[in-house]
Amino acid sequence: MQMAITPIQVSSISAGALLGTAGTAQLIQSINDSLSGASFYDSAQDTFRDIRNSFITNIVQPIQQAAQKVSNLVITLTNPDTIRPLITNDAFLVVPPLMYEAIVMYPPLRHLLEQGRIAGFGFDPEYLPKEDVWGRLISNGVVENVLDNVDADGKIWFTYEFHSTDPIVSFEELDAVEETRAHIDWILANTYLDPTDINEERG
C-alpha cells in the first residue's frame, strides 16, 4: 500500500492554525511589549515583574516550543530527503539524512566527533571511511593559484580523481555540500552550537 502526501496541503499548515492565535509571534511580541513597557509604582513593580516572568515561563515559552516543533514537522514533510544547501542555522534543524555522511566526514566535525563533543547523527567515527570523499570530489579540478600552476608550455592542468566507490552525485549537489560546509565553518567560528544537533551546544 502506498500513500502520497501532497506538499501543498502540508505547507499550508501554520503554527497559528494548529495552536490558535495564541501561538503567533505577533501576539507574543505584543504581550512582551505591553508588559515590559507598563509603568507601575515602585512598591508594586517587583510583584508585577514576577507575574510577568511567570507568565512568560509557563505560558509563552511552552507555546513557542510547541510552535517550533510544529514548524520542524512541516519542514520535514515538505522537504524531501535531498542534498541541498544548508546556509542558515535554522536549515540545520532538519538535516536530510542523505547529507549526514557528507557533514560528519568534514574534517573539523569528524575531529569533534572523535572527541565525543558532537552528536554526529549517531555515527561511530571508527566505522566512517578514512578519506573525506566529499572533500575530494568538491576539490576535483580546482586550481587554487592559476599563475603558480602554469607549466613550461603555458598550459594549466586540472586534476580529477574518481573512485568506483564514490557516491554518485551531481555538480549541483557537490556545490550544496560545499556551501553547507562553509556555513558549518561559520557555526564553529561564531557559536558553541553542534551542527549535527543545532539545538545543543558542543561538548
Explain the layout of strands and helices.
Layout: H1 7-11, H2 15-19, H3 25-37, H4 42-78, H5 100-104, H6 107-114, H7 133-139, H8 171-190, E1 193-194, E2 197-201
Antiparallel strand pairs: 1-2
Helix pairs in contact: 3-4, 7-8
Overall body shape: elongated
Mean pLDDT metric: 79
Classification by helices and strands: mainly alpha
| Quaternary organisation | single chain
Summarize the helix and strand pattern as letters: HHHHHHHHEE
Number of E strands: 2
Strand content: under 5%
Tell me about the largest β-sheet. Answer: 2 strands, antiparallel
Number of helical regions: 8
Strand order of the largest sheet: 1-2
The helix fraction, in percent, is 40-55%
Q: Rg from C-alpha positions?
A: 24 Å
Q: Count structural domains.
A: 2
Gap from first CA to last CA: 44 Å
- Low-pLDDT regions: 1-19
Overview features:
about 200 residues; mainly alpha; 2 domains; two-stranded antiparallel sheet; 2 strands; about 50% helix; elongated
Write structural notes for this entry.
The N terminus is likely disordered. With 203 residues, the chain is mainly alpha-helical. It has 8 helices and 2 strands, in the order ααααααααββ. It has 2 domains: 72 residues; 112 residues, no CATH class. It has a two-stranded antiparallel sheet. The longest helix has 37 residues. A hairpin with a 2-residue loop joins strand 1 and strand 2.
